[in-house]
Design a protein that fits this description.
The protein has 343 residues and is α/β, with parallel strands linked by helices. The longest helix has 22 residues.
Length: 343
């Protein structure tokens, strides 16, 4: 059987979560997120972000989180601004547009938005009331290209958004990987301080399912629960999500898992760099994009699954490799062995 580097959710979940679900399976609890596990998980998250005034809601997946957040806080004539690589643009089947909200795209080679990227968007949408109103800036950390925001970059972007009356929303599907990157100087506390809304992604970091939406801007908290219910995201058995996040937040398991995934990816990256391999983007998270010969890609494909991301020329292509919280040393060593023999 081939080992898959296609994504970081091929496996089920961390054993601690399965054990907790089994242990509390027959406990009677209130529904719709009012169970004791969900309430405890929310308090634990508030402690970690050092913001007791944040509101927290658990939903099942990233697309659902993005859809609910953006559709609920934007008025019908307002729109979102995203890097061209943004998940809401390329991998969500027009979910945002289906709610009537346009997405304005900015092409960025590294997947990161800066204030200077947004200025032209604002200037080209001054024809009031004939054009949509840019209102929300959507970013990801880590990005869809595996890159991360520095503290300075997020501070600058947050300041710009406040000055221009824009909401700043961070897609945190891989926020654990972003924050535990060896080059990251950003913390969970700072993310909560500098964004209006973000979410902690569980699906790609050890949970069965689940994302924790965290609303820091108190103006956006009112009536948010109605949007969760209306979009079909309010689980009757909310305990399923609460138990998972309670386990992930205990003893920083969430960050330990993400750090492990990053370290496994860096083992492959470092060997490739030593042998002169070029990369589509310089990443320090669990996603890497090496540019390899098509012959080597074919050789690797015999034992491993991954995406061929982009054709470079007739002889070379960039592939995407993703390691997970559960990626062991054996597949990493086997992959590296082939590289050493072929490069």
């Amino acid at each position: 059987m081939k080992f898959s580097f296609k994504n970081d959710y091929s496996e089920g979940c961390h054993p601690n979560i399965l054990q907790a679900l089994l242990e509390h399976n027959l406990d009677q609890q209130a529904g719709y997120g009012e169970d004791e596990y969900s309430l405890k998980a929310k308090e634990l998250i508030k402690e970690k972000i050092k913001n007791p005034k944040s509101d927290i809601y658990f939903v099942s997946g990233g697309t659902q989180a993005n859809l609910i957040v953006i559709s609920s806080i934007l008025r019908p004539y307002q729109c979102a601004v995203s890097a061209g690589t943004g998940h809401i643009l390329n991998n969500e089947t027009g979910a945002i547009e289906a709610t009537g909200h346009k997405i304005l795209s900015v092409e960025k080679g590294d997947g990161k938005l800066k204030s200077e990227d947004i200025i032209p968007v604002l200037e080209s949408h001054r024809n009031v009331p004939h054009q949509v109103m840019p209102k929300l800036v959507y970013i990801s950390n880590s990005t869809e290209l595996g890159t991360i925001y520095t503290l300075k970059e997020l501070e600058d972007l947050s300041k710009f958004c406040k000055e221009n009356n824009l909401y700043l929303f961070m897609d945190g599907a891989r926020i654990g990987h972003g924050l535990t990157s060896e080059i990251s100087d950003l913390t969970l506390e700072k993310v909560a301080e500098l964004t209006d809304i973000f979410y902690l992604g569980g699906t790609k970091n050890g949970a069965l399912i689940g994302e924790a939406i965290i609303i820091n801007n108190q103006e956006l908290q009112q009536d948010f629960a109605f949007n969760i219910k209306q979009k079909g995201a309010l689980l009757a058995k909310g305990r399923l999500l609460g138990i998972q996040f309670l386990e992930l937040m205990k003893n920083d398991l969430y960050f330990d898992l993400a750090k492990h995934a990053n370290q496994q990816a860096m083992k492959i990256k470092n060997i490739m760099k030593e042998r002169g391999v070029q990369f589509l983007s310089d990443t320090y998270t669990n996603q890497i994009f090496p540019i390899l010969s098509n012959d080597l890609i074919e050789k690797l494909s015999e034992k491993f699954e991954f995406y061929v991301w982009k054709k470079i020329d007739e002889n070379f292509s960039a592939i995407r490799l993703i390691t997970s919280w559960n990626t062991g040393d054996e597949p990493i060593n086997n992959f590296i062995e082939i590289l050493k023999n072929e490069l």
